[in-house]
């Protein structure tokens, strides 16, 4: 026998845990700051103490963990480390390591201070759900004040010494008493036991009540009473630990023996032995005590549970993890109890017998999983093994001072005992005692009762052995059926590294040897061969059949590994060519390779590379041998790809003989379907390397042909008018893959191989020169065309966005994803690309016009030469030509509009809404335009629009930035732009509603190869399904939007809703398709006067200034000069035009695509103040940024004329004039 000690988890932030628990004891913080996270301490307190070897430390960590209370849940998903009144909870988290494998870590989920001082009692209970799986976790804490808290519960006034749980176990043999769940709490002179079922029901009820109270905003809960038994332990001087063995029933002989000993010769004996609960205690006087409580001798006590809703402990417990029982955090402290809770008296229970040893004092007892044995440690450094049933010591180990104990139970394999023709025999179990000796730094595993030591491991001297001794709570004989929950039996926590070393499990020595990653394959092969020969030479009846099969199967796998490894040393270069099929897609493949290779720098490790040699341990773990056949065990994609690379990558690169490798694999009996999956996996996952090796495609064709000719690949009875499962497997892998180029190449190769296969079958069956027509070939034609379309689309999506734009990760598409995305999935992908590229609507319109010109001049709908695919415009035109229906201009503009409005909804401060409206204007179909406008209004706009209207009505003027952000969710400038977009959107709605009757609805078509798309309805389909709008109601909203936009633009004082009568107010913000009562032509005179008063309050000079700025903004300088003469407040106009001039000059010097050398030299000569001011300008606000310098020079001259010399910005205007004149002179 041998043992394995494997790391299954690692604790993160261990240094922070220690610093939190021992922050008051850190005497030298400067030294601790220099230590790394794993180097938690360097204890030099014993330096120089060479005379005492036992006092020497290993120098890695101080024994801080021994001063803490540590408990790990049975499912290993929660750990609690506590000291005094502080506690840290660590919850399980899964992360991916560098090799792509999932690993579990324990990270700090909560740390804080407990209200009471912690005693040594701490337990983590996991409760089941209705399905029998782990549902929620409860931490049971015992305090020195006597409280046990899962809720506030006072059971005794003495300190809590120990908390232990016992969970349900399925009886192993008929007649064995069924053990029920129980929580036992040890006090110095009392033992409290709580029935597990009652505890589970009470905690679940409290948990549900707290959840309902939290949902209702209340803290009033009424927990049910808790039933428990309290025993007064007598006849022992001191008690430090205990174990609850459970219910037992004596045989008749033992009953008569006990009766005669206790009652004498005349004692009476009952007809049936009574059921008794057995408890074992350790301490002193006697060293070990055995107590028996007859069932029914004590009635359960009812305690009214007090919920500490505001306690720090419960708040921490149940805010740290959502699945824990608990309450929300409260700011107030726990109210002090007015009177002390009543403590129930204990029922006396005398010790039945014990193991007297006046000098020896017990320290710890650990009960075995089968409840028949127990290990006890004492202050003499001994470990004693007790026979629980007989009450005697049967074994003792010396030299284990401060030892920590645990148990491992190993079940018998499912073999002949369960397959016997009669009633199946129960499985046998072996018990192993685990002893951790911290002073020697060794972990040992001993066989019981008199078995040898089967394993020993050198570990750290400051570790903690964590052994729960229980499993899931809330389980009974019914819910335990089919229960295969894995719980960690015992594990070792190393504080130096934070590692949790998994359960010590005795196993076969050969399995341990094969699991060694450093053992060479030749050594493993020789050892396995010798062992197999030795077994063959023994008596067949004495040989373990399982060991014989293991040796035989592993030897066969090792031989296969060696053969494949040797074949990779020779090469073969003669292959068939398929250049004609590749010429058609070569330009797109080249452009795709340019965009995907080296687009983003990354770090990789040689050991994780697919080129790294496959360790023999990994090979054996992924293969199974059943009789004469070998099959591959399905596993993660990374392991599957690594195994495929080991088998086929040498063949794909031409370094290995293809036919020999295929012949070797065929002899092993591995199914061709599994070999095909491995080949496709490595091909599709190593796309970048495949594109660099041009000869790999030809080698793939040869490999695929060889695999297809294997027995069991393509059925001989296959009807050519049906779909072949073999080739369907290839198509399924290609259409699901996100590696577009590799999938297309694989499809082209498979199409050629399938066509050759069908031709051979046709010649065999029909003996005719006619070309065979097959459903299989039709499927391949569709698949190849779909993959070509996807490659073209993926190439476009790989174009990196320009710098400074809101970029994101490159999306990956596949044939399957596009088919499942519905008919609008392709347009949606391109719309997202347009957003990432920050393409202006007018520029997109020009690009689509190029597409129309190309279609009118070229007869072919798909470009084959690919000469102009160097820019994103050409790529977009190419994709649009491949999808003429799915990417029609109206559909693309509609999806772009929707994408921009979605992005605006995420960030209203950015002007995405204005671009969404611009895209909507470019939609030519009024039906689609009307539907998109209605959907935008109802989904995103109307809520913010109504909030803005009510805010302005409430304030009575243009609100400040703070109020806009609070009520509308955007700043004042963003809200002004938003209201302007609302005006344009409502204008589009009215125009589209007027044009729907003149034009027939468009027919939404899709390309023939994409006709099977299934998924959600497309955006255009939803738009055409929208109801029509009520024109007067839209016009009514348009009037309000114009009024709101005017108020925000010119900072007017107005209550906009007050300018409408009651009918008008009630009609606002209703469904635009509904019929509402609108204001009549007969207007209330008071309302008319109110409107006239508002118009009279509008300063005409403000409108003139706004008109001048808008004319200059659009580049209409001559018309602006004419209006400028009518403006009265020239100072304000000068300040406004100064900003506009700065925007023009900033565009000329900083934001043009082709900056001239004179412009750059001028920028270097500018004063620092002017240069900083120009960089702060935003030219994107200009309607026409490209204005001749002569117009800008004339504008600056006009600025100096209208600005007084004492104006604060007069000097800035002079600097602008000099800069413009210099720029003109240089040009």
- The radius of gyration over CA amounts to 41 Å
Helicity range of the residues? 40-55%
SS field, number of helical segments: 39
N-C termini distance: 92 Å
Verbal overview:
It is a single chain. The protein has 1227 residues and is α+β, with helices and mostly antiparallel strands. The radius of gyration is 41 Å and the shape is extended. About 9% of the residues have low confidence.
Which properties best describe this structure?
1227 residues, alpha+beta, eight-stranded mixed sheet, six-stranded mixed sheet, 39 helices, 34 strands, extended, GTPase activator activity, RAB3GAP2_C, RAB3GAP_N, RAB3 GTPase activating protein subunit 2 (non-catalytic), Rab3GAP2
What would a concise description of this structure say?
With 1227 residues, the protein is α+β, with helices and mostly antiparallel strands.
Give me the secondary-structure topology.
Blueprint lengths: L1 E3 L2 E5 L2 H8 L7 H5 L35 E4 L5 E6 L2 E11 L5 E12 L4 E11 L5 E10 L3 E3 L2 E3 L7 E5 L15 E5 L3 E6 H21 L9 E8 L4 E12 L2 H12 L11 E10 L3 E7 L6 E3 L8 H9 L26 E3 L1 E5 L6 E6 L5 E6 L4 E5 L4 E6 L6 E8 L17 E9 L4 E6 L5 E6 L5 E3 L24 E4 L4 E3 L3 E3 L1 H6 L6 H16 L8 H23 L11 H5 L2 H11 L19 H6 L1 E4 L2 E4 L4 H16 L5 H11 L3 H14 L1 H6 L3 H13 L16 H12 L3 H27 L8 H23 L17 H6 L4 H13 L3 H17 L14 H11 L6 H18 L5 H10 L4 H30 L5 H7 L4 H24 L23 H6 L6 H20 L11 H6 L17 H13 L2 H14 L3 H8 L5 H21 L6 H9 L2 H8 L13 H14 L7 H17 L1
Parallel strand pairs: 2-6, 14-19
Antiparallel strand pairs: 1-32, 2-31, 3-4, 4-5, 5-6, 7-8, 8-9, 9-10, 11-12, 12-13, 13-14, 14-18, 15-16, 16-17, 17-20, 21-22, 22-23, 23-24, 25-26, 26-27, 27-28, 29-30, 30-31, 33-34
Helix pairs in contact: 7-8, 8-13, 10-19, 12-14, 14-17, 16-18, 17-18, 17-19, 18-19, 19-23, 21-24, 22-23, 24-25, 24-26, 25-28, 26-28, 28-30, 33-34, 33-35, 35-38, 38-39
């Amino acid at each position: 026998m041998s043992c394995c000690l494997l790391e299954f988890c690692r604790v993160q932030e261990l240094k922070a845990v220690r610093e939190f628990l021992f922050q008051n004891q850190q005497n030298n913080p400067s030294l601790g700051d220099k230590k790394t996270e794993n180097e938690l301490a360097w204890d030099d307190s014993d330096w120089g103490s060479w005379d005492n070897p036992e006092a020497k430390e290993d120098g890695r960590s101080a024994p801080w963990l021994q001063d803490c209370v540590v408990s790990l849940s049975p499912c290993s998903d929660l750990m609690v480390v506590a000291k005094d009144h502080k506690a840290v909870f660590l919850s399980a988290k899964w992360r991916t390591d560098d090799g792509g494998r999932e690993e579990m870590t324990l990270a700090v989920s909560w740390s804080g201070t407990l209200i009471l001082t912690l005693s040594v009692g701490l337990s983590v209970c996991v409760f089941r759900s209705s399905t029998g799986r782990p549902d929620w976790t409860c931490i049971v804490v015992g305090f020195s004040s006597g409280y046990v808290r899962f809720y506030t519960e006072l059971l005794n006034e003495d300190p809590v010494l120990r908390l232990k749980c016992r969970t349900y176990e399925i009886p192993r043999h008929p007649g064995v008493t069924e053990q029920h769940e129980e929580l036992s709490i040890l006090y110095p002179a009392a033992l409290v036991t709580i029935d597990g079922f009652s505890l589970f029901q009470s905690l679940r009820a409290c948990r549900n009540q707290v959840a309902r109270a939290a949902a209702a905003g209340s803290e009033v809960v009424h927990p049910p009473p808790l039933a428990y038994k309290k025993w007064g332990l007598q006849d022992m001087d001191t008690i430090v630990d205990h174990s609850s063995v459970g219910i037992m029933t004596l045989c008749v002989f033992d009953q008569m023996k006990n009766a005669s000993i206790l009652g004498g010769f005349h004692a009476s004996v009952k007809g049936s032995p009574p059921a008794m609960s057995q408890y074992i205690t350790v301490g002193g006087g006697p060293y070990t005590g055995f107590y028996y409580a007859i069932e029914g001798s004590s009635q359960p006590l009812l305690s009214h549970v007090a919920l500490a809703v505001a306690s720090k402990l419960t708040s921490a417990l149940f805010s740290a993890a959502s699945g824990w029982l608990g309450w929300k955090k409260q700011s107030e402290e726990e109210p002090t109890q007015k009177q002390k809770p009543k403590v129930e008296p204990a029922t006396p229970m005398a010790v039945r017998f014990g193991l007297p040893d006046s000098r020896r004092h017990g320290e710890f007892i650990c009960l075995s999983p089968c409840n028949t044995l127990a290990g006890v440690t004492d202050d003499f450094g001994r470990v004693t093994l007790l026979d629980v049933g007989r009450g005697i010591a049967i074994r003792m180990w010396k030299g284990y001072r401060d030892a920590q104990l645990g148990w491992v139970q190993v079940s018998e394999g499912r073999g002949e005992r369960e397959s016997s023709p009669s009633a199946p025999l129960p499985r046998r179990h072996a018990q192993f005692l685990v002893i951790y000796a911290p002073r020697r730094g060794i972990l040992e595993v001993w066989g019981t009762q008199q078995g040898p030591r089967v394993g020993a491991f050198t570990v750290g001297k400051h570790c903690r052995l964590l052994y729960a001794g229980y499993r899931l709570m809330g389980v009974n004989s019914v819910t335990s059926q089919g229960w295969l929950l894995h719980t960690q039996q015992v594990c070792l926590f190393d504080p130096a590294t934070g590692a949790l070393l998994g359960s010590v499990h005795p196993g076969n020595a050969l399995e341990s040897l094969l699991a060694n990653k450093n053992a060479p394959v030749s050594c493993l092969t020789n050892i396995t061969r010798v062992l197999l020969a030795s077994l063959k030479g023994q008596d067949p009846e004495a040989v373990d059949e399982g060991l014989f099969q293991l040796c035989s199967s592993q030897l066969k796998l090792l031989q296969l590994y060696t053969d494949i490894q040797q074949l990779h040393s020779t090469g073969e270069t003669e292959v068939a060519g398929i250049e004609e099929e590749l010429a058609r897609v070569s330009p797109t493949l080249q452009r795709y390779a340019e965009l995907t290779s080296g687009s983003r720098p990354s770090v990789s490790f040689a050991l994780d590379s697919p080129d790294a040699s496959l360790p023999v341990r990994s090979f054996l773990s992924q293969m199974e041998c059943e009789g004469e056949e070998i099959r591959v065990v399905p596993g993660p994609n990374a392991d599957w790809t690594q195994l495929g690379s080991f088998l086929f990558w040498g063949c794909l690169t031409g370094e290995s003989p293809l036919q020999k490798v295929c012949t070797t694999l065929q002899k092993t009996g591995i199914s061709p379907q599994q070999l095909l999956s491995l080949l496709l996996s490595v091909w599709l996952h190593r796309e970048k390397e495949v594109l660099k090796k041009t000869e790999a495609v030809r080698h793939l064709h040869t490999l695929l042909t060889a695999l297809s000719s294997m027995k069991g690949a393509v059925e001989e009875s296959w009807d050519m008018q049906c779909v072949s499962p073999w080739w369907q497997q290839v198509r399924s892998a290609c259409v699901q893959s996100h590696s577009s180029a590799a999938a297309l190449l694989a499809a082209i190769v498979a199409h050629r191989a399938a066509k050759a296969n069908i031709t051979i079958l046709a010649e065999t069956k029909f003996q005719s020169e006619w070309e065979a027509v097959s459903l299989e070939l039709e499927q391949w034609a569709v698949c190849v065309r779909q993959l070509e379309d996807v490659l073209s689309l993926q190439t476009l999506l790989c174009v990196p966005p320009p710098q400074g734009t809101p970029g994101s990760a490159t999306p990956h598409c596949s044939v399957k994803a596009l088919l499942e995305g519905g008919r609008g999935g392709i347009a949606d992908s391109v719309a997202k690309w347009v957003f990432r590229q920050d393409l202006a609507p007018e520029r997109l319109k020009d690009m689509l016009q190029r597409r129309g010109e190309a279609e009118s001049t070229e007869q072919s709908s798909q470009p084959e030469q690919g000469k102009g695919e160097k820019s994103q415009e050409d790529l977009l035109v190419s994709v649009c030509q491949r999808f003429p229906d799915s990417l029609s201009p109206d559909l693309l503009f509609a999806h772009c509009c929707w994408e921009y409005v979605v992005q605006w909804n995420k960030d209203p401060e950015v002007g995405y809404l204005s671009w969404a409206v611009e895209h909507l204007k470019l939609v030519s179909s009024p039906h689609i335009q009307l539907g998109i406008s209605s959907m935008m209004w109802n989904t995103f706009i109307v809520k913010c629009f109504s909030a803005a209207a009510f805010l302005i009505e409430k304030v009575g003027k243009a609100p400040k930035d703070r109020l806009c952000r609070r009520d509308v969710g955007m700043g004042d400038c963003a809200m002004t732009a938003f209201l302007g977009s609302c005006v344009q959107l409502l204008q589009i709605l009215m125009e589209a509603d007027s044009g729907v009757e003149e034009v027939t609805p468009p027919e939404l078509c899709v390309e023939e190869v994409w006709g099977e798309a299934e998924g959600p309805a497309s955006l255009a389909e939803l738009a055409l399904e929208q109801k029509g709008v009520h024109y007067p109601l839209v016009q009514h909203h348009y009037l309000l939007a114009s009024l709101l936009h005017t108020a925000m633009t010119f900072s007017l004082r107005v209550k906009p809703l007050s300018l409408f009568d009651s009918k008008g107010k009630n009609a606002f913000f209703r469904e635009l398709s509904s019929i509402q009562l609108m204001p009549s032509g007969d207007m209330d005179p008071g309302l008319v006067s109110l409107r006239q008063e508002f118009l009279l309050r509008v300063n005409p000079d403000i409108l003139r200034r706004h008109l001048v700025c808008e004319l200059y903004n659009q580049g209409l300088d001559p018309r602006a000069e004419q209006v400028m003469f009518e403006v009265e407040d020239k100072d304000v106009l000068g300040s406004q035009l100064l900003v506009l001039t700065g925007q023009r000059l900033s565009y000329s010097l900083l934001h043009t695509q082709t900056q001239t050398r004179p412009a750059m030299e001028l920028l270097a000569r500018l004063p620092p103040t002017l240069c900083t001011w120009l960089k702060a300008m935003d030219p994107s606000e200009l309607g026409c940024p490209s204005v001749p310098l002569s117009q800008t020079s004339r504008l600056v001259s006009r600025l100096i004329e209208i600005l007084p010399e004492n104006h604060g910005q007069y000097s800035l205007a002079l600097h602008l004039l000099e800069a413009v004149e210099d720029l003109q002179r240089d040009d």
